[in-house]
Write a structure and sequence with these properties.
The protein is an alpha/beta fold. The chain has a single domain (about 1-145), classed as 3-Layer(aba) Sandwich (Ribose 5-phosphate Isomerase B, Chain: A), CATH 3.40.1400.10. The protein contains six helices and five strands, in the order E-H-E-H-E-H-E-H-E-H-H. Helix 1 (about 10-25) crosses helix 5 and helix 2 (about 40-55) packs across helix 3. Bound molecules: D-ribose. D-ribose binds near residues 10, 65 and 69. The site of D-ribose has 8 residues, from helix 3.
C-alpha cells in the first residue's frame, strides 16, 4: 500500500519509530514531516497527509500528535477521509472492520513504541468487513456531501 505519514513535534519521535517499523515491509511510505522536535502546528501536517488521502493519491494515512485529538479533528474535515484515533488495539481493529478507516491517528504522548507498532500492524493488516457497514459509511458520505453543499 501507499501510505502518507505526518506528525507535529509531539508526535515526531513516534513517527520515526513507525517509519522504522514500515521500512521492513512492502509498503511505500511518504514522510510528510515534521522532521525535528521544534514546535510546529499540527494542522499544517495533518492537512498534508489528509489531502493526499482525500484525493486518492495514497491508500492510507497515519497521523501523530501529542494526544491524537488535534490531528483527528483536522483529518475528518476532508472529504473521503475516515480518520480513527486509536491508542489501543481493539479500536485499531474495529476501525478497520467496521469503519474502513483510511487514516490512523496516534497519540505520541500517550502510547509507547511497542504498542504503536502492534496498533499499526493490526490496522494495516485488518480488512473492512463490508456488509451492513457499507450502508453506514454511505450515510456518513451523504452527510458529508450535504454539509459541503454537494448533497442530493
Ligand atoms: C502540542 O503541544 C499538542 O497540543 C498537539 O500535539 C496535540 O496533542 C493536539 O491535539
Amino acid at each position: 500500500m501507499k501510505i502518507a505519514i505526518g506528525s507535529d513535534h509531539a508526535g515526531f519521535g513516534l513517527k520515526e519509530d513507525v517509519l522504522e517499523l514500515l521500512k521492513g515491509t512492502a509498503h511505500e511510505v511518504i514522510d510528510c514531516g515534521t522532521n525535528t522536535t521544534a514546535s510546529v502546528d499540527y494542522p499544517d501536517f495533518g492537512e498534508k497527509v489528509s489531502r493526499m488521502v482525500s484525493a486518492g493519491e495514497v491508500d492510507r494515512g497515519i497521523l501523530i500528535c501529542g494526544t491524537g485529538i488535534g490531528m483527528s479533528m483536522v483529518a475528518n474535515k476532508f472529504p473521503n477521509v475516515r480518520a480513527a484515533l486509536c491508542n489501543d488495539l481493539f479500536s485499531a481493529k474495529m476501525s478497520r472492520l467496521h469503519n474502513d478507516a483510511n487514516v490512523l491517528v496516534l497519540g505520541g504522548r500517550i502510547i509507547g513504541r511497542d504498542l504503536a507498532a502492534e496498533i499499526v500492524r493490526t490496522w494495516l493488516d485488518t480488512a473492512f468487513e463490508g456488509d451492513r457497514h457499507m450502508r453506514r459509511l454511505q450515510k456518513i458520505k451523504d452527510i458529508e456531501d450535504t454539509v459541503n453543499g454537494n448533497g442530493k
